[in-house]
Structures are given as structure tokens and as C-alpha cells.
Amino acid sequence: MSLKMMTWAFTKDLKNSQFQVLVAIANEANDAGECFTGQLKLAYLANVGERTLRNCINQFREMDLLHTERRPMSFGSGRKADTIILHFENEAHQKAPSLMLHPKRKKQRLDGKSMSQSPTVKLKPLNRQILPVENSTGKLR
Asked: What does pTM read for this prediction?
């Protein structure tokens, strides 16, 4: 798990299922952006089906967010899970800058006035009496 990869994944502007898949891959990736986890486990972590996961990975390839490399078995026939390598240096598909203002700047209202110019309303304390309540046994608490 790499905080660097997770932070990178959260900056991407993607559809819901794509976002879930990218976060699952980033969560399993190391600091170099390499993920050695199989598709079945990634689908489980992202809470999507295997077919949805494969579609998302193909879409990420087209978006140049990642690429995969085959890993052959060191003995016998077959192969291991593909290595997924994230392209975290690629800054395409980032979310729009946050609408939060700089802390030293005045916040703006919709009518154009700053928040500091709006009148402040002081709330009066409520003067209620707390009355005793009977419980089911008829006793007062």
C-alpha cells in the first residue's frame, strides 16, 4: 500500500466504477506504481465484477493511466498475475481545482458580498424549565 499512489488516484476525475477500480489498484501498488495483485482480488476490493474490472483496466490503458505486463511462471507452464504499472507521472485526467478559497481570502456569497460584511445574528439562550418525567413504573426521574 502506497500513500503516494492512493493520493494520485484520488486526484483523478473518473466515473464511479472506474474510480473504485483505480483506488483498489493504487491501494495494492507499491511506491513505484507496480501492482502484482490478481484480477479476482482487485474485483473483490473494488466491489465490482471481474468483467467490469477488465473493462476499466482497458479504459485506463486508453487514458494512459496504466499499462500491464505479463509475468510468466518461473517453473512449468502458465503465468502469474499480470503486473499493473500505474503512470502516476502522467497528469492528464485530473480533477478540476478545488473550489475552496485560500484561507486568508474572504469567502464570497452568491450575491457578491463577502461573508464578513453580512450581519451577525446573536442567538438567545432558551429559557426552558426541565420538568420531571414519569417512567413506566410511575416514579419520577
From this structure: 0.61
